[in-house]
Amino acid sequence: MIDYFLKGGVLMWPILGCSVMALALILTKAVQLQLALKRLSAGIHRLLERPPAEIAPVIQAVRSGANEKQVAFLGTQQIRGLERGLGLLGLIASIAPLLGFTGTVTGMIQAFMAIANHTGGRVEPAMVAGGIYEALITTAAGLFVAIPTQVALHFLEERLDGVTLRMRDIAMTLLEERRNGV
Fold first, then answer.
1. What one-character DSSP code corresponds to residue 64?
2. What are the pLDDT tens digits along the chain (182 aa)?
3. For residue 108, how many other CB atoms are within 10 A of its CB?
4. Terminus-to-terminus CA distance in the chain, angstroms?
5. Closest Cα to residue 132, out of 111, 163, 148?
6. Taking the model in full, what pTM does it have?
7. CA 152, 79, 41: angle at the middle one, nearest 5?
8. What Å distances lie between residue 111 and 22, 66, 135, 139, CA to CA?
């Protein structure tokens, strides 16, 4: 594996950086969103007794008499905090294959330079193989980072949607109870 990495050229380093960053973000966000869903799954009265951090500002706003727009704004702020990092995952999923394709271009340039600099009659395949080899390795590496990152991003966004819906349900229930004097 190290041999492939080294033969892939200098663009393998940013691809490696993207993969490490993506893995760290995926694991962090998966745990964060799973815990948020678990904490928000309790009954409404239990949530009122010990509000989890994700919904605490919303519950406090409802209790202090905030209107629906204010409560919605606070909820949006809380969701934006939970979204943090997902944009970077999307960026990594976009950049990784571009880095790989850049490696493809530079590898092909090297291959054609070897052909252009050859002053003899016949061009040997071994002369261009190194550039093509680099081109294929970086392309594959970029795709190996981008594809799982994009899949993970999709699942994390779905999990965030679940948290958002649960928070919205809690806020609407509390506002309705306040309206009805419960």
1. T
2. 788 888 778 899 999 999 999 999 999 999 999 999 999 998 888 888 899 999 999 999 999 999 999 999 999 999 999 999 999 999 999 999 999 999 888 888 888 887 787 766 677 777 777 678 778 899 999 999 999 999 999 999 999 999 999 999 999 999 999 888 86
3. 15
4. 64
5. 111
6. 0.84
7. 80
8. 32, 67, 10, 16
Give me the residue spans of the domains in the chain: 2-179
Are 48 and 177 within 8 A, CB to CB? Answer: no
Q: Which tokens go with 80?
A: 């934006």
For residues 85 and 26, give the distance between their C-alpha atoms in angstroms, rounded to a whole number. 9
Q: Which two tokens stand for residue 8?
A: 């892939």
Taking a C-beta distance cutoff of 8 angstroms, is the pair 99, 142 a contact? yes
CA atoms within 13 Å, Cβ hemisphere of 77: 12
How many CB atoms sit inside 10 A of residue 139's CB?
A: 21
In single-letter form, the type of residue at position 180 comes to: N
Number of other residues whose CB lies within 10 A of the CB of residue 140:
16
